[in-house]
# Entry
Amino acid sequence: MTDADTAVERRLGRRLRERDETIAVAESLTGGLVGSLLTDVPGSSDYFDRSVVAYSNDAKLDCLGVSRESLDAHGAVSAPVAREMARGVRDDAGTTWGVSTTGIAGPGGGTEDKPVGLVFVGVAYAAPWGTEDSFVRAERRVADGDRSTVKAESARWALRAVEDALD
# Structure
């Protein structure tokens, strides 16, 4: 079996274990699916710390430290909020990596500016102190399909985003 044939959660887990790094997850639209994928891998407790499902704006404020200003100015489904979610869960958990998902799974809730299927994934990396290599970024994508498909694709996309950042 080639690396490309292996599920992303297994590839990512192997790489995190090899690097002695850890990950925490902040989920909104995926509702726990990212954490579920990670824990499907035997031995994931070596690198997986937690998954926080923060579905409401209040939960994003309370559990992840997302700023009221970002929520007011950009809305929950935005790159700034995805970045703050990833940074918040990484820093609260004290992990090397934080990843977040926020979006509109549908079937309702979309607008012209933010259509159903719009997803933002945030990735936060905590580099060793003094290296100034830490970063936080967010990516935007519009997924096709029904609610279940959007959620499932977004969960795997979040893991691939971390995998890509490892490179």
Observations:
- Helices lie at 8-19, 33-39, 57-64, 68-74, 79-93, 147-166.
